[in-house]
Amino acid sequence: MVSTKKEINFIESYSCDVDFSFLKNKHKFLVEGAINTHFGREVDKSVKNSKEYGYNPNDPIIAPYRIHLQECLDDYIQKYDLLNKHPHFNVYERINYQRYDKGEGYYEWHFENFDNGRVIVFMTYLTNTPNAGTEFLYQNIKTECVKGTTLLWPAYWTHTHRGIISKTHRKEILTGWFTTKVPS
After folding, report:
1. Which residues pair with 53 in a beta bridge?
2. What's the rounded Cα separation, in Å, for the pair 66 and 180?
3. At a CB cut-off of 8 Å and minimum separation 6, what does 43 contact?
4. Non-local CB neighbours of 17 within 8 Å, separated by 6+ positions
5. pLDDT in tens, 45-74
6. pLDDT tens digits along 18-52
7. What share of the chain is helix, strand, coil (3-state, %, to 5)?
8. Residues 126/27, Cβ–Cβ less than 8 Å
């Protein structure tokens, strides 16, 4: 069972001991990180500068990670049981492996739900990166980039956030969403 380390205003932190060796050969397939805009997905390095690779959530290679995410979600729903009244949600969109080299990151404040059915965000830090992590605007907190930490939080404007940029080290994450909609 996954155990919660701490809770800060609906931001939950879990320990992850999944073997991520499947990421080893993905570096050659990385593409420029894109953001969603009113015009579709675009690369805008002034907003987000990264390299990334998207996994189909049903790819068997990430099954152990999906099990971990489900355990985290089960714990989250147990703690916030009114989520049971929410329409069904699951991981339908791709799971993004993102690499931020030193000085790169998601620079702008943003939130994840723009009428796209995203309910809960998940993010797992894959590196121990000093002076990096995630900053949450309205909670006035910063999380540290500690390898093996998975965060879950609401996808809404209440949890507006941005990356904390390391000027000296690489930061790597897996991230995605529990959504109510299957992408078209």
Report:
1. 97
2. 17
3. 32, 33, 34, 35
4. 148
5. 999 999 999 999 999 999 999 999 999 999
6. 999 999 888 889 999 999 887 888 998 999 999 99
7. 20, 40, 40
8. no
The answer to whether 94 and 55 have CB atoms below 8 angstroms apart is yes
> Residues 16, 150: contact at Cβ < 8 Å?
yes
- Comparing CA positions, the residue from 147, 140, 137, 139 lying closest to residue 169 is 147
- For the entire predicted model, the pTM comes to 0.92
Structure tokens at 94: 């791709």
pLDDT tens sequence across 80-132: 999 988 889 999 999 999 999 999 999 999 999 988 899 999 999 999 999 99
Tokens of 111: 């939130």
Q: Give dist(CA 91, CA 172) in Å, integer.
A: 20
Q: How far apart are CA 113 and CA 110, in angstroms?
A: 9
| Residue 47 DSSP class | T
